[in-house]
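Researcher: I'm preparing a figure for a lab meeting and need a structural model of a single chain. I don't have an experimental structure, so a prediction will have to do for now. The sequence is pasted below. Please return the structure as tokens so I can convert it later.
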Amino acid sequence: MTRSKLRKIRRQKSIHARALFRGIPLASALLAGSGVVQAQQAEESQGLEEVVVTALKTQQNLQDVPLSIQAIGNERLEQLGVNGFDDFAKLLPSVSVQSAGPGFARVFMRGAASGDNGNHSGSQPGVGQYLDEQPITTIQGALDVHMYDIARVEALAGPQGTLYGANSESGTIRIITNKPDPSAFDAGLSIEGSTVANGDQGYLAEGMANIPLGDKAAIRMVGWARHDPGYIDNLPATRTFPTSGISMDSLAKDNYNDADVYGARVALKIDLNDNWSITPGIMAQRTKSNGIYAQESGLRELAVEHWHPEKSDDQWAQAALTVEGKIANLDMTLASSYLKRNVDVDSDYSDYAFFYDTLNGSGSYFTDNDGELINPSQFINGKDHYTKWSHELRFTTPVENKVHAVFGLFAQRQTHDIEQAYKITGLDDTGDVTGDAWDDTFWLTKQYRVDRDSAVFGEVTWDVTDKFSLTGGARYFKYENSLEGFFGFGINNTYESSTGEASCFAPGAFENGPCTNLDKTVEDKDTTFKINATYHITDDAMVYVTRSEGFRPGGVNRRGTFPPYVADFLTNYEVGWKTSWLENRLRFNGAIYHADWDDFQFSFLGENGLTNLTNAGSAKLEGIEMELQWAVTDSFSLFGGLAFQNSELSDDFCLSLGTDGKPLPRDECIANDPSEFTASGTRLPSTAEFKGNLTGRYEFSIGSLNSHFQASVAHEGDRRTALLESENVVLGDGDAYTLVDLSFGVGKENWQTELFVKNATDERANLYNYAECAVSTCGGIVYSIVTTPRTIGLKYSHDF
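Model: Understood. Here is the structure written out token by token.
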């Protein structure tokens, strides 16, 4: 049901009934299960609305589905003012995030995080992300989709190895868009202005139109433009390099980190007949940001001292096609998509140069063509260009059958064209990487990565009785990952003689790189399994037990002395419940889980700051997730969720490898290098032991106006930053924080005006700590990604 239709229904009801309908579900089943939610709004009643899901690729009442789902529906997304990923991630207790700014978020679920650095030559993400039926997880992370005209967000906690496969090792997040509707015209617009404490001003404009094209077709068009104000100041400063005595000034600028986001989505739905429909669509977005989204240690809050231009231009477009129909008694779905994403980034890398000069006198290596010392400060010009093809063909049998199933085929191919040029202005020509394009380039990464995977999957459910069901599932998968190209120094570089052109084995340029010193491929195949038992105690209470598996593909290491890393697996054991009380005015759902993460992939910075990967350890993940929805009265509702999580090493962790390519035993590891050892029982990074949220909404009348007041509180406990104890001591833990959002609005008929305050207490929440290079070198300056300061805004919405 579209947003306008819902509002037309509400105008025909009493204010109390309207309040109940709009104030209930934060998550149609926050923390309850694991699958794909297709939340459909039911007619209003004096209880919570029914939520229909397709967690098992067939429509079911959410309270009957034995899977752990956290969901935020269309109404709640609007009420909570969700614009992007960070806005809804804080409302998902099982989700933790490392974000470095727009489009650069690494997502983890249930604590399955090893502290990887997200390098382009590293591990694939462990959480799959989808836009409707299509995966949007590129090798370094997912798209940062602007959240407007979105039907719902779904977070599927726990391994999704059978139905979703690779990259869904610890969970899956889906963004489901509103679809074209041939039954009625619908349109809306929204404008917003805001100001950030200690920062600048922002704006947002959004609009949509759903236009029927006869009785069997419709087109839906959506557009948005957003300016995110800056709040990090680049302070005036001077840096002097010790070897040469050369000084440079910072690029002083207030409100350094602003961003502009604009994009559009167009979808067409055609009902060919009563059984078949096709839905082609395209979505595109561009995000241009400046500066960085971190504050620097040793300075005042919300400030850095940086020396070279910093900006990002992230452009992507996805074309998708979904075909749905019936073949005999089978429901068929074909979902195909093509994604293209280009990200151009300029980064300051001066800390690396300064600390290497301070510690090792490396500034003496860098001269101009006359042999005079130059400013050794480095900066990076980076280009990451991605493509992704994905196809899924699946069939479902009628759910009313005593034995019913879903099964299908999946294939995807994703490429990553990587270019990272590390530059020093005025560098001697003999120090450059060879090639006209690489003037002043001290180090070059010019690589082409291809990740392919395919699978056959299926789940079969046997309804043993009306109350008891058994489900079994499996996914047979194959993957092949390759990495080729060039990385390293120029042939005449005196800083290091073995990495770069000196190690090339194939003459001639790779693309426009100087030669080839890397050409590796790894492939493997395996099977993941799932088994589930579900028992309905009553019509309002259900319990389930699940064993499920998830995986992440292996890959290759650039450095020749490091062997390939293999796939890692997460095996999950879970007991869950779903209950309704007080004539469906109260829902209490939850799950308790234990998971074993075997031979998890770990990335670290080695010699020359080069990322290496190894299967370095095992961990256990344990926790309890709960969700509450309560229609306290017809005017007042409460909803929230929480997670208690314990994720820790189950074995000693050693970064040092033996001659067999495996981690050294405890005593040998400590003797070899104690900084590369971490003991069993150490918490994994990025995940708090407690995360929770609570939102209350009260709706009332002021004269003829429909009004509301809403307060939302989100808390996250302290988090470890790095897995290695030696690194975590330098970077420090992320402190616990609590964020408070408030809103007050009035409206009538088709319009609404709302005053909102985000981060009302102006909490300086520390989300993620990092250094510019290995902490043993660059640990003198630590950066902390922080939440946006208090933001006050006014929003006006109108439906037609």
